[in-house]
Amino acid sequence: MSSPFKWKNPADAASRGIANKMLSEDYDPESELMEGESLRDSLLQMVRTNRVATLGAIVIVVFALAALLASWVAPYDPVEMNLVDRLQPPSLQHWLGTDDIGRDVFSRILYGGRVSLMIGIVPSLISLFIGAALGLIAGYIGGFVDSCIMRLADIVLAFPSLLLAMVVMYIMGASLFNLFIALSMINWASTARVVRAQTLSLKQKEFIEAAQSMGVRRPMIMFRHILPNCLANLIVMFTMDIPGAIMSEASLSFLGVGAQPPTASWGLMVSQGKQFANNCPWLILAPGFAVLVIVMAFNFLGDGLRDAIDPYLKN
């Protein structure tokens, strides 16, 4: 009895086995490049063996909880002025001192964490989705579509990211919402290039050829069979993009085109405190140290994730 499917190579039993595996309910395409090791096992292995990455994850959780619970943790209103207590040094009453209009620096650090983490995570997530989708389309369809998407990515990558974000902010105006849009627009190109390269490699695999021979539609192949195999690198890229977005937000706010007063933002706090740097160094050291710690924590976590789940770095 002949098979109802038209195989590219009917004598290839391996292709039939791959197709049967794809049709089974237990099929997990993520395991194609993970060599039988699940993502959960890799993460647990990282926690057990990579103390630096684990420390980075703990620091991120602490900062996130402090930012989320700032309304209950912060001892003062971050925008409440008290000219009587202006420029007070760190003390038991004000742990990190006060600024030039008497606002508590520690309270503003906690609320500024909300802005920095939100700016770091949300635009990175948006650009990740955009870059992954465009990279899949470019790599799988190829031809003219591939050329158009990649040339657009080349144009975006040709400009320094901070300069491009500044141009977008100057055109659209300085606000947190526009900052979201600006950072989402400039960070997708590198993701698209990585996903395209992986797609070009994956679409030559036997399980993709088997799916094509069975008449599986292109969107199903791209998002059901190719995208899960790119998941490891996407997670690493997402983790590594967050500190870049945080630094961009701090830089733009420092230059006056990011968060605007009275919003509590670490970059804006450094900008407002630089004129008092000689006499009141805590005004710039506290927010600057907060940026340093959270960026290092994300970098440590990203390095650990890369070592743990990138299949090309496994011994």
Structural account:
By secondary structure, the chain is mostly helical. 69% of the residues lie in helices and 0% in strands. The chain has helices at 13-23, 31-34, 39-49, 51-68, 70-73, 105-141, 143-158, 161-172, 176-186, 188-202, 206-213, 218-226, 231-254, 266-273, 282-309. The model is unreliable at 1-36 (pLDDT under 50).
Class by helix and strand content?
Answer: mainly alpha
Dominant shape: elongated
Biggest sheet record = none
Figure out the total of helices: 15
- Average residue-wise pLDDT: 81
Number of strands: 0
Fraction of helical residues: 55-70%
User: What is the gyration radius calculated from CA atoms?
Assistant: 24 Å
Helix and strand sequence: HHHHHHHHHHHHHHH
SSE arrangement:
Blueprint: H1 13-23, H2 31-34, H3 39-49, H4 51-68, H5 70-73, H6 105-141, H7 143-158, H8 161-172, H9 176-186, H10 188-202, H11 206-213, H12 218-226, H13 231-254, H14 266-273, H15 282-309
Helix pairs in contact: 1-11, 3-15, 4-6, 4-15, 6-7, 6-9, 6-10, 6-13, 6-15, 7-10, 8-9, 13-14, 13-15, 14-15
Features of the shown structure:
315 residues, mainly alpha, 15 helices, 0% strand, disordered N terminus
Nutshell version of this structure?
With 315 residues, the protein is mainly alpha-helical. It is built from 15 helices and no strands. It is elongated, with a radius of gyration of 24 Å.
